[in-house]
């Protein structure tokens, strides 16, 4: 039995947190002659594809509608966003992502040359791109700036 470092309540030797106050307890020392237990340090979660912190909150708030437009209206939305909000870094980020999605759509049309199997692959590719657009749209609704899943590996338009 050991005592809590915060409130002094009695705890089992294997408890990591106090049941009374919730304080984290230090790791128990290994028994004499036993091998020491090493734990890896916990690194903070970091998403290299999340660029939300790079943009000003006012810019995000002012231009969220134009950023949504590029995913809803495809090429027409890209043109409208370019004309209406060309100075916004937030909109420019989403414009780059939407252009990548449109390039993937155009490239997937090459599959239509192959009868039947190519047509099926074209439909699957367009369904995946449509899902990516929906995900990106809802991220814009939340004020996020994350690169969509499959196209994040494309190095053009950084």
Give a summary of the structure in a few sentences.
46% of the residues lie in helices and 3% in strands. The chain is mainly alpha-helical and 158 residues long. It has a two-stranded antiparallel ribbon with strand order 1-2.
User: Mean pLDDT, rounded to whole units?
Assistant: 87
First-last Cα distance? 57 Å
**Strand ordering within the main sheet:** 1-2
Count the beta strands: 2
| Cα shape | elongated
- Strand fraction equals under 5%
Helix content: 40-55%
**Strand-pairing-aware structural class:** mainly alpha
Largest sheet: 2 strands, antiparallel
Number of helices: 4
Radius of gyration, in angstroms, nearest whole number: 25 Å
- SSE arrangement, N to C: EEHHHH
Query: Which segments are poorly predicted (pLDDT under 50) over 5 or more consecutive residues?
Result: none
Give a quick set of tags describing it.
mainly alpha; two-stranded antiparallel ribbon; 4 helices; elongated
Walk me through what this model shows:
The protein has helices spanning 57-72, 74-84, 89-108, 117-141; strands at 2-3, 10-11. The chain is 46% helix and 3% strand. α3 packs antiparallel against α4. It has a two-stranded antiparallel ribbon with strand order 1-2. The mean pLDDT is 87. It contains 4 helices and 2 strands, in the order ββαααα.
Topology, pairings included?
Elements: E1 2-3, E2 10-11, H1 57-72, H2 74-84, H3 89-108, H4 117-141
Antiparallel strand pairs: 1-2
Helix pairs in contact: 1-2, 1-3, 1-4, 2-3, 3-4
């Amino acid at each position: 039995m050991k005592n809590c470092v915060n409130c002094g309540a009695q705890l089992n030797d294997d408890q990591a947190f106090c049941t009374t106050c919730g304080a984290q307890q230090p790791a128990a020392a290994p028994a004499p002659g036993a091998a020491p237990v090493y734990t890896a340090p916990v690194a903070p979660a970091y998403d290299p594809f999340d660029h939300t912190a790079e943009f000003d909150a006012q810019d995000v708030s002012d231009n969220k509608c134009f950023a949504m437009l590029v995913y809803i209206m495809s090429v027409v939305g890209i043109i409208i966003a370019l004309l209406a909000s060309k100075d916004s870094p937030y909109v420019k980020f989403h414009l780059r992502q939407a252009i990548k999605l449109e390039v993937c759509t155009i490239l997937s049309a090459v599959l239509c040359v192959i009868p039947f199997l190519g047509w099926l692959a074209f439909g699957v590719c367009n369904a995946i791109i449509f899902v990516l657009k929906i995900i990106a749209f809802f991220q814009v609704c939340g004020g996020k700036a994350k690169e969509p899943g499959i196209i994040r590996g494309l190095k053009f338009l950084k």
